[in-house]
Amino acid sequence: MTIVLANDPTRPIRTFISTLGAIVGLGAGTSHTCAVASDGNVFCWGLNASGQVGDGSTLNRVFATPVPSFSFNVDRIVQTRGRGHVAVVTALVNCPAGQHVKVDVRLTQGVTTGHGQAAGQCTGGLEGVPVKVAGHRGAVFQPGPAEAEADAVVPDRGQIVDTHDWTRAVELTVEP
After folding, report:
1. Rounded distance between C-alpha atoms, residue 136 and residue 86, angstroms
2. Is the distance from CB of 124 to CB of 37 less than 8 angstroms?
3. Closest of 70, 37, 69, 65 to residue 53, by C-alpha
4. Nearest to residue 91, comparing CAs of 69, 110, 106?
5. What is the second-level CATH architecture of the domain 71-174?
6. Residues 70 and 91 sit within 8 Å (Cβ to Cβ)
7. By three-state DSSP, how is residue 138 classified?
């Protein structure tokens, strides 16, 4: 079976996907399509009269076009260190190359809480930013379920370009 784009029935979609490598996500509008590559980069193509491709133009795109994007998540596995006094939460960020990201994490496990901050360089692909979270007042994190709340901010010349808030159930493990 051949799948074709609504706006160009002469070109099978496999032509476009083959140029992107491994695809981990795919979304479609009425007349445009976007794909997330395994490295976290986003590509879109299709009709673009209203800017729906997301590349900052209104030119229709027949081929997959890189789209600046910022996505954020938290790794599900969190390692504890120092007999549980510190947990390392890995923030997963994909933001435009050349920018920086600031991450603020709060970790809660029952009555035990902690807080940490870190910064990272944006590469235009998916990057892990480790955030050390110290237990509040010497509290100790134990292996098992917890909740991570994280905020990520991408500033540019003193202005906030983008921000994300994320809450995720995580699993604390002991560092090997």
Report:
1. 10
2. no
3. 65
4. 106
5. Sandwich (2.60)
6. no
7. helix
Q: 77-81 and 159-174: which strand pairing? A: parallel
Cβ neighbors of 54 (< 8 A, separation 6 or more) are 34, 42, 44, 67, 68, 69
pLDDT at 13 over 80: no
**Percent helix / strand / coil, the chain, rounded to 5:** 5, 60, 30
pLDDT at 99: 87
pLDDT of residue 130: 96
The sheet with strand 32-37 has its strands ordered as 23-28, 32-37, 42-46, 61-67
Two tokens, residue 146: 């917890």
Task: Provide CB contacts within 8 A for 110, sequence distance 6+.
Answer: none
Distance (Å, rounded) from C-alpha 11 to C-alpha 36?
Answer: 20
Q: Where do the domains of the chain lie?
A: 4-67, 71-174
Q: Which amino acid is at 24?
A: V
The residues facing 117 across adjacent strands are 104
Residue with tokens 């160009």: 8
Question: Residues 15-54: pLDDT tens digits?
Answer: 444 456 678 878 888 888 888 877 667 888 889 887 888 7
* 132-176: pLDDT as tens digits: 999 998 899 999 999 999 999 988 878 887 888 889 999 999 877
